[in-house]
Fold this sequence. Notes:
Layout: E1 6-16, E2 22-27, E3 37-39, H1 46-58, E4 68-76, E5 83-93, E6 104-110, H2 122-139
Amino acid sequence: xxxxxxxxxxxxxxxxxxxxxxxxxxxxxxxxxxxxxxxxxxxxxxxxxxxxxxxxxxxxxxxxxxxxxxxxxxxxxxxxxxxxxxxxxxxxxxxxxxxxxxxxxxxxxxxxxxxxxxxxxxxxxxxxxxxxxxxxxxxxx
Length: 141
């Protein structure tokens, strides 16, 4: 990781539906698809930040009991050059129907066994997708 890159602390979700598909979002004015979530405010706990972002951006309610903390991951920020995102990732089942709101321009669903041509943010490409796929193989055993 670039030592000169400034960190942005975020909370993000591996949000899956009953079919095992993974939800990705693209923010307005950007090119990259990424996990739903957003910046953690000062004094805010990571899960609380995630719940706030899911409510504001997708109209979803996040259940702390249903969430599984997957760890902290870092990658170059997709939309802010010179910054690194430090993400607390949580796996969550979809609770309700995701509807783009606030700065979300588009949502996309990834199928577990399908390749994607979507432009993916580094955190999604390098950490979230491999983690999601490993979780799918764990549950299919």
